[in-house]
Hints:
The protein is mainly α. Helix content is 69%, strand content 0%.
Amino acid sequence: MGVQWFVTGWQSAAERLVSSAFQSPAELKAAADAAGVRETDLPDYIQRDAFAFGYVYGSEFPNATFTIADTERAIDFVTRGFGLRRDDVAAMAWCTPSAALAGHYAAIVREYSLRASLYRAAERCLADPRPIAEIARELLSDAVNSTTRGIPPRRPVVRPRVVVPPGVRRAVRRRAHR
């Protein structure tokens, strides 16, 4: 009963942004502990990643909230503690406040490789007090709009062919053998 309640609660919270149901990772951890939920109880990988990140985050930073600044602190902690690449942890952090948002934009994120640009944008917004889900939604819509404006295809680099006269080639070879 408790596990199913929490899974259902997590899914519905994700659908309307987790930040509206869990104001902090500590609340998420407390609800998970009370319901006896484990990461493997959640049905899809986006929710599992988000849950795992939020649970560890709630354990280590009980006073944190779902904001860019706190997420940045958690990214640094997890990167140092577990030896993960920052990009991998940042991707999990983006999922944390809203599994539904991450799922909705997953195809777009993969197609346009937006995670790196989102992360750079996040670093510029460290002091922003809004929930990360709200900022992520805004950044995603800006990034999608900018990538669909018709960027011209890259042209191949053409290198000029250098013609070396035969006498010069022999002289270079002789010097190399000395």
